[in-house]
Each structure stands twice: as structure tokens, then as C-alpha cells.
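#lab-general

N.A. 3:47 PM
ok so I finally got the sequence cleaned up, no stray characters, all 545 residues accounted for. can someone with queue access submit it? mine expired

B.Y. 3:52 PM
send it over

N.A. 3:53 PM
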Amino acid sequence: MKLKNLLLICLVALLAACQRTQPIVILYENDVHCAVEGYARMAGQRDAEKQNTPYVAVVSCGDFAQGNTVGSLTEGEAVVRIMNAVGYDYLTVGNHEFDYTVPQMEHLSQILTGTTLCCNFSRITGVGEDGQIEEVDLYPAYAVKKFGSTKVGFVGVATPSTFRSSTPTYFIDDEGNLLYDFHQTDTYERVQAAVDAARGEGAEIIIVLSHLGDDPEVAYSRGLIAATHGIDIVLDGHAHHLLNERLANDRGDSVTLASAATKFAYIGRITIDKNNNLTNELLPITKCTHVNQAVQDTILAIQQELEARVSAPIGTTAFALTDRDAQNNRLVRKQETNLGDLMADVARYTTGANIGVCNGGGLRAGVYNETITFGDIVSVWPFNNTMRIVECTGQQLLDALEVGVAALPLENGDFMHVSGLRYTVDTRVPTSVLWNENRMFDGVGKTRRIVNAEIFVPAEGEQGKLPYEQKGTWQAVDPEATYTIGGQSYIIACSGASGTFAKMHVQPVCGEPLNDVEAVCSYIRAMGEQVDEAYRQPQGRITIR
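B.Y. 4:20 PM
back already:
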């Protein structure tokens, strides 16, 4: 009996010794968008946490590979080098990880030392005898990591809107058949299956690394929480919000929804105590004072590698080329700006088309310094597009404009800045744009918001001049006439702008397509390497009432 009691005491002592007594800390970020200076502080915060507990992990909710020249000039590889220096544990993919093509995104995932998780991105391999689509997941849906005696499950999920917010033709073949599936109709079910599987492997805490955002027309973070159970916290990206709130799941249990804004304004910090109680904090980056020198050295080395190319001067401007107003409110997705006018003129001038277009969602920065560098232009247009021409009818052109103004007065990445064209929008008219299941353009109903659209017809001998120098007349767009439109390949050839140009006849500019950044450089050189006074203010091409 005494031996039995002694064994019981020893067993209790052994179990007590195995119990985790120190906290688990999970550091997270989302939507860094190449703000790489923050990685040294992320690593420094990780180092500081490890002074108090051995149980620390670093995770990302996506959109790290694109945002400025560090990403675009290396197609994300420089950012991955820095993330590897930090030592990420897990991450999920944002829609902008796909901007450099799916194979490049897979390559980035392969060279990342952290594990990429995504439960709702599959490659379609065929159709079975029963007519069902056959597919294979590109990434594991979840992972379970042990911290002492506690198992924590991590689940990754990407926004199905990637299909239209990245480059649609990356996901379809030449005949329009889907090559990849984001599981728009069953995203929540796939997350639930991953949660259940992780719980089945003993996970006591479930953390979802989400890049869903807040658009309720597709799978979104609040909808995910309301439709599932077994999740403790959803870390969300895509919408760039600062969030730390509690929401009810499908069983009425409370779930934390958190997001750390964008560009390392904050570092998120989850603490799991010895009783598995979870708390979430959002640490302003300015208060994360620890800097990891090895990561800092990696950042500096990469910046030095790119400096000569990025800092090369292209021209000058006596005024700002704006994407925002004085209060830092973004304008280019809902109204005309001088930057939009300039870039649309670049499209028309370098392609020789009747009309130039530039979607507001493609304008990622303004130019606010007198000397315009190559890096400034890459920051404005960071997606490595080429310039293309599409041939379309006037009716197709009017339809494309309707898509761009469908959301007004709210923002819309499809909002069209134009050259050689002017139009008037009546926002009092309800939009009748029709969408398919992937929220791609599917037609226009009876009502139209575009109440007047006119095309500029240069006078004889004016065609080769710079757009703002041309003389000519304005004529109403003829729905039956054929026009040429020049723009970036994303819009013209790759089903961007919600696919409005997808079924039109696409032509290269002349032989080998011209890179869009080089097109801007060419246009600035044609102006005498100084932005003309004609662009000091928006030119009144778009009237909104």
C-alpha cells in the first residue's frame, strides 16, 4: 500500500513537472507590404520575449511580398530573405503574393524557412468520371506546434477575392477554364475541417492566420467566426484595419478578431498563460525598441544592393502627383487626380491607342518629391506589367466605365482614370452592373450611371504629339464604333478591372510589349524630363455628381 502511494505521489510530481508554467507568446503581423524596416524590430521583440519564456513563435497573415521596390524589383525574393533572417514559424498567403505569377509564389513559399499554410487554394487537375472536379491542395491547411505540454494549432486561409484582386489570367487557361480554386463557396467549411483536424491531433488552442478582410460579398473574417467553432483567435489581414474585438461563433462562444493594421504600424502579441487563457495586445512599433542587429544588417545589405537602381533620377516635377488628399485620404479609387491623368496619358501615348486607361487600384503611391527617381515610379506602378492595346466597341467601353463607377461614392479599384476620353457620372442612379460567382463582370442591366462619355479626336497632324498638346474635337462615344484602348496588361490582357476587357481582342504594343515602368520613363523623357504644368491640377476629365 505504501509502495502504491509512493508511486502515485511520484506520478503526480512527474505530471506537475511536465506542465507548462511559462507563457506562450505569438507575435504576428499582416499587410507589411515591403515596409521591411519593421522586421528588425519584430525580431528584436521576439528576442526580448525569449528572455522571459522559451515558448515564442512569429507568424504572418500575408501581403508581404509586394508594396514597393524591394518587392517588385526582386519579385518578392528580397523580402523573403529578410523574413528568413527573422525566423518565421508560420504564414499564410495574401492576394498580393500572387502578383508575380503563381509559379513565383510557389517559389517564394519553397525558399521561405517558415511553413506556408492555406486551406483553400488548390490546383485543378481534371474532372473525374462522375463529373466532379479533381484537385490537389498546394499547401497544408494547418499545423500543430508543441510548446512544452501545450499543443497550439495554426490554420491558414486566403481571400477568394484573390481571383480578381491579383491577376485573373494567372488562374485560368487560354479558353477561360479554371486552373486553380479558392473555394469561394466552401471556404468556411474548409477552415472548419482544418480546425477539427488540428483539434483531433490534440491542439488545445486554435489560431487562424487569415487573409480575408471585411468584404461580406466574399468569405470574410467576421463571417468566418460566425460560421465556425473551435477557433480561439482569428488574426486577419487584407483590410489593413486595427482590430482587437470579441465576436460570437456559431455556438455563441466568444472568439477574438485581431489585426495589426499595415506596414508594421503595430506588432500583434498573443499571450497564452499556463491555464491556456489567451490575451491579445497590439504594440505600436515605436514602443518595440529592441532591434535585432543581424536582421538589420540583412535589410541594409539588400537596400544597398538596390540603391543604385532605385535612386536613379528620371526627371523632375514642380508639384506633387497625388494619390491622396492633405488628410491622407486615398482618392485615386473614387475620383480624378493629376497622377491618374498623367498615368492614363502614359498609356495612350506609349501605345498609340485612341484612349488610355489606368485603374485606381493599380496606383499604389504618389510622387511627393521634386526629383522623380526610378524607385518612385516603381512605387506608383509596382506590379511589373507590360503595356497592351485592346480593340473594343463603344458599347464595351461604356460597360467598362460602368464597372469602374459601380461603387461610387465608395472606393473601387476598378475606377478608371482616362486619357482621350471624358465622362460624367450620376451617382444618384443605382448601379445595375451584374457579377458572376467570382464577382467578375457579367453585364449591365437597365440603369446606367455614365450619363455622358466623349472621345477626343485629334486634328490632322496632331496624333504624334503629347496628349496635353494635341488639338482636336470631342465626339460622343458611338456604341457601334470600334476604338483602341491602351493600358497595363493587368487591365487589358489579364482580366483585371473585374474582367471587363477579358473577351476583347488584345494586341501587343509593337512587337515585344513595353514594360509599364519603362513606359512612364519614356513619357517623362518626352516631356523634357520635367512633368509639364498641364498636370499641376486634375484636368476635368471625370465629372461626378
